[in-house]
Amino acid sequence: MPETDPPSVAPSPPIPLPPEAERRLREIGDDPTDQRIRRAVLLGTSFAGPIPPPEVLREYRQVVPELPERIVGWTEIQLQHRHALERQAADAAERLRNRGQVISGGLAAMGLALAGAVGIWGNPFVAATLAIVAVGGPTAAFILARALPPGRADARARSQDL
């Protein structure tokens, strides 16, 4: 059986690299013309952020002419959506704080009214204690909520349940 030569494979065209990548390859002592290195560098290339770099957008435009404008439009829509969600979260947190203050003020007023009634028709010592608790309790809760790091009270409560 005669030996046949394997079919010849045409060399692939050189893989283009950004000039910055070629410069960095030279700095670390690698040959930027080596196709294996170029392929590895391209496989590891990425970008951060919602919009690709201009070079990539130009390449996208060659494939689908309106794609860069669509990508920028999608990014703007996503940004508006995220801002709306953040605004809703901030508004909800503000409503929750306001509600807590109203409830706390109402409880303090009711406690002071009860303390006044107990002071007039009952024991002044008990009335003073009720007044201190009615005003001091919500104030202490407010101060502790600001002073403790988030989640600390939950961890303490879970450890007491064990």
Give structural notes.
Helices cover 72% and strands 0% of the residues. It has helices spanning 19-27, 35-43, 54-63, 67-121, 124-147, 152-161. It has 6 helices and no strands. The mean pLDDT is 81. It is an all-alpha fold. It has a domain at 17-46. Helix 4 (67-121) runs antiparallel to helix 5 (124-147). It is elongated.
Q: Helical segment tally?
A: 6
Helix proportion range = over 70%
Q: Spans with pLDDT under 50 lasting ≥5 residues?
A: none
* Strand portion: under 5%
Q: What average pLDDT do the residues reach?
A: 81
Structural class: mainly alpha
Strand runs, count: 0
| Termini Cα gap | 82 Å
Main beta sheet: strand number and arrangement? none
Q: Mind telling me the C-alpha Rg? A: 35 Å
Order of helices and strands: HHHHHH
Q: Which shape, going by the Cα principal axes?
A: elongated
Characteristic terms for this protein:
162 residues, mainly alpha, 0% strand
Overview in brief:
It is built from six helices and no strands. With 162 residues, the protein is mainly alpha-helical.
Chart the SSEs and their pairings.
Layout: H1 19-27, H2 35-43, H3 54-63, H4 67-121, H5 124-147, H6 152-161
